[in-house]
């Protein structure tokens, strides 16, 4: 009888998600007659008893060939020749995960990374991006309310709680309806017009917009931002795409394909919008090849001219020293923010200080573990039998995984696959 296992998450006490929820697991094991092993967990949002009730075997060792998880796995957990499916966070050569990857190579394991399971156009087929956007936007609004209170303003945003404090998404929707009605009564003139800049338009951005739509925000084009006068009972949001964020260094016309392939030809133009924004929410994928959109030098110059409009930056992408240069730390959900003081270069944890509040949490979807797990499991359950039923011969070319799953194979039987050979230089 074929089998698979679900690993207990250990990266953080906040990581309560599961890749396969009990009801989906029941459907799979009954349909395919698989045996399911589940590593016991005291913090998983779906309890051990729920898995036991659907016929799973609670097993500390996970005596099975296929093991599914969410986040990175400690190097001492791996066993020779087994197959692991999880978010490895290795494709950028992340230094802190190289010992893990090296151990996987040594033990001749196979690694399928959810992040790289993509269709023929490179679009991700399974991800938590929407929930990162939802949780990140909630936490950013929470920080915004408290920052304004520190500055002497009480607003409806004080009613916003941190994302993890809500039971589920429905509770969030119910409470935001009430907050919306308070906003409609009018906001302080000191913060009007309240304008939000959203960088990016993918899955994360859609989650951000899902929350803002609960507050009936009015969307405007980026080029309308500097001229907006607005009403004190409206929130204005603008979605910034690549052509809004960068321009050619030589003044020639923007070309999206060229930007992706030759980003060194471009520089950021986002700084021209920053003085008119109350809040920035960063949802963009970034690596070192691309220009930064928010820099220390610019913010030092901005703050040297007086107190600016910007209050909070919600860096959902959470790339350390990335597109937001002063994203210096990845914080925990209960303490998600710190203040960057541009004139001194200092950081103060919390939302008090002479600078801009940065919300930066790298496990945002874990703040909504139930909804996020249900969503993720609903997609993964159709992939799982294809992974288990596939043939894994010596030569990766002959592996019978569907192509979209082969895209996600970073390590195959102890070797980096051709697409990911570049990672060798980081090992």
TrEMBL record:
<dbReference type="InterPro" id="IPR051168">
    <property type="entry name" value="AASS"/>
</dbReference>
<dbReference type="GO" id="GO:0004753">
    <property type="term" value="F:saccharopine dehydrogenase activity"/>
</dbReference>
<dbReference type="GO" id="GO:0005737">
    <property type="term" value="C:cytoplasm"/>
</dbReference>
<dbReference type="Pfam" id="PF05222">
    <property type="entry name" value="AlaDh_PNT_N"/>
</dbReference>
<dbReference type="GO" id="GO:0019878">
    <property type="term" value="P:lysine biosynthetic process via aminoadipic acid"/>
</dbReference>
<feature type="domain" description="Alanine dehydrogenase/pyridine nucleotide transhydrogenase NAD(H)-binding">
    <location>
        <begin position="177"/>
        <end position="360"/>
    </location>
</feature>
<protein>
    <recommendedName>
        <fullName>Alanine dehydrogenase</fullName>
    </recommendedName>
</protein>
<feature type="domain" description="Alanine dehydrogenase/pyridine nucleotide transhydrogenase N-terminal">
    <location>
        <begin position="5"/>
        <end position="135"/>
    </location>
</feature>
<dbReference type="InterPro" id="IPR007698">
    <property type="entry name" value="AlaDH/PNT_NAD(H)-bd"/>
</dbReference>
<dbReference type="InterPro" id="IPR007886">
    <property type="entry name" value="AlaDH/PNT_N"/>
</dbReference>
<keyword id="KW-0560">Oxidoreductase</keyword>
